[in-house]
Write a structure and sequence with these properties.
14 strands, about 40% helix, binds ligand F0G, about 15% strand, Aspartate Aminotransferase, domain 1, globular, 16 helices, 5-stranded mixed beta sheet, 2 domains, about 475 residues, alpha/beta
Length: about 475
């Protein structure tokens, strides 16, 4: 008799104490919901979904400790003890000196961009992120992509597709002069590239180069722990270092950070700006009062800051992050086994399906990724998100950006779904893949002025 070889599986380092019931829908109900939502998954009602993979932002499950922390909220208008706890955690774990809390990541991006960017400045970055670039542009700056070319190729399996191309950066410095570049905008786990990490080696080289020119590095540290996991798995010399140490080392090569704590840090709302320069901090403390709230709460309740402080501690636990990324990899491998084209290597926070490859008969003007997201919802009630031409939006001169990557993001919330959910998701995507030739593109019938992907509406093109 043949026996299955014994493998060593990972499993979640937690058990489930409370569950949230989900509604199962019929195809007819989903069809109606999709029409009402103008084929935009952002406009679907959450109660019409089965599995929600729209985003990993603010959708994670808090732990019993975080919930207990909510009860310790000190809701004083000024000087809440939860602020001081958060400040201590940000200093100890992340290593940045000064903290300004904000309601979420873009609140910090707004303040930082207004402080550091002057009209006509250039902000080089390792691929754009929607809100980050928009705030840079609204402050009068121009974003320039300096990520390595490999990042724009979904098939390329380079292990650090979040790396900066130092030649591209040097050319920009030569062309514009260092004085026109207030900072380099560096994201860990580059979201739009598919959750791809930057290597420690590349960061160190970037630090050396920017030091030479006196240019700051500002870190979008939204998913820094996931990036640290990939460094631990893939980079020489880091196998025996803890996630906590790797996170701290990453941050040590940068001058400040914006954070959406709704991702890595396991809270439903919250973010911050953290900097090492006193002058920038002073300015930010002034400005946060205008846009967010007093500098000791920044638009958050005391309880939110407490949950964030505890969530940050949990996020850098090795077992947590291995299970988190392990679940994403499980889904990705399942998709690959069905022949579904996805971005490789598999990233940290979700699976990015290559819609250009999935639906090669649909031109980019007819929104292949938007179309695919709608079809997956129709098949099984799984909600995903477009990350392609709709998300990329328009340039200042009104022309569309046409990104090379036309992707559908299956984003996995942390500690929320089980492995059986992952099976259902992969099987549904495989079913849509089987009937891909019968799928038609879309036409945009309403386009908002800013961040159009959130609220744009579409119509199916006739067969
Ligand atoms: N930076 C990155 C890399 C992000 O992924 C996000 C948000 C932000 C900044 C902005 O933070 O939402 O708290 O204001 N990303 C979400 C997503 C929206 O679905 O990827 P925020």
């Amino acid at each position: 008799m043949m026996h299955t070889p014994i493998k060593k599986s990972w499993a979640e380092p937690y058990k489930i104490k409370m569950v949230e019931l989900l509604k199962m829908t019929t195809k007819a109900q989903r069809k109606k919901a999709l029409l009402e939502a103008g084929y935009n998954t952002f406009l679907l009602r959450s109660e019409d979904l089965y599995i929600d993979l729209l985003t990993d932002s603010g959708t994670s499950a808090m732990s019993d400790h975080q919930w207990a922390g909510m009860m310790l909220g000190d809701e004083a208008y000024a000087g809440s003890r939860n602020f001081y706890h958060l400040e201590e955690v940000v200093r100890n774990i992340y290593g940045y000196k000064y903290l300004v809390p904000t309601h979420q990541g873009r609140g910090a991006e707004n303040i930082l961009s207004k402080i550091l960017i002057k009209k006509g400045d250039i902000i080089p970055g390792n691929m754009y992120f929607t809100t980050t670039r928009l705030h840079q542009e609204l402050a009068g700056g121009k974003f320039e992509d300096i990520i390595i070319d490999e990042a724009h190729d979904p098939e390329n399996e380079f292990p650090f597709k979040g790396n900066v191309d130092l030649d591209k950066l040097e050319k920009l410095i030569k062309k514009h002069g260092a004085a026109k570049i207030p900072y380099i905008s560096i994201a860990t786990s580059v979201n739009m590239a598919g959750g791809q990490p930057i290597s420690m080696k590349n960061l160190k080289e970037l630090r050396t180069l920017t030091n030479k020119h006196g240019i700051r590095i500002i870190h979008d540290m939204t998913r820094v722990a996931e990036n640290a996991h990939f460094i631990q798995q893939r980079e020489k010399g880091y196998q025996h270092k803890s996630i906590r140490d790797i996170v701290k080392e990453i941050n040590s090569y940068t001058d400040g950070a914006t954070m959406s704590a709704k991702k890595d840090a396991l809270v439903n709302i919250g973010g911050f700006l953290a900097v090492n320069e006193w002058d920038v901090f002073e300015e930010a403390r002034n400005m946060v009062v205008v846009y967010e709230g007093l500098h000791t709460y920044g638009g958050l309740a005391g309880r939110d800051m407490e949950a964030m402080a505890i969530g940050i501690m949990e996020s850098i636990n090795d077992d947590h992050i291995h299970a988190r990324v392990g679940q994403v990899v499980y889904l990705g491998e399942k998709m690959i086994s069905y022949g579904v084209p996805i971005v490789k290597p598999i990233g940290g926070h979700g699976i990015f399906v290559d819609a250009k490859k999935f639906l090669p008969h649909i031109p980019q003007d007819q929104f292949p990724a938007q179309t695919l997201a709608a079809e997956v919802y129709l098949d099984s009630g799984v909600r995903t998100m477009e990350r392609g031409v709709v998300s990329a939006g328009r340039k200042a001169n009104g022309e569309n950006y046409y990104p090379k990557l036309e992707l559908v993001r299956f984003t996995i919330p942390r500690r929320v779904y089980t492995q059986a959910h992952m099976d259902v998701i992969a099987e549904s995507t495989a079913r849509v893949y089987e009937r891909r030739h019968k799928i038609n593109g879309l036409k945009m019938i309403y386009e908002p002025k800013y961040l159009r992907f959130f609220q744009a509406r579409f119509e199916q093109l006739p067969k």
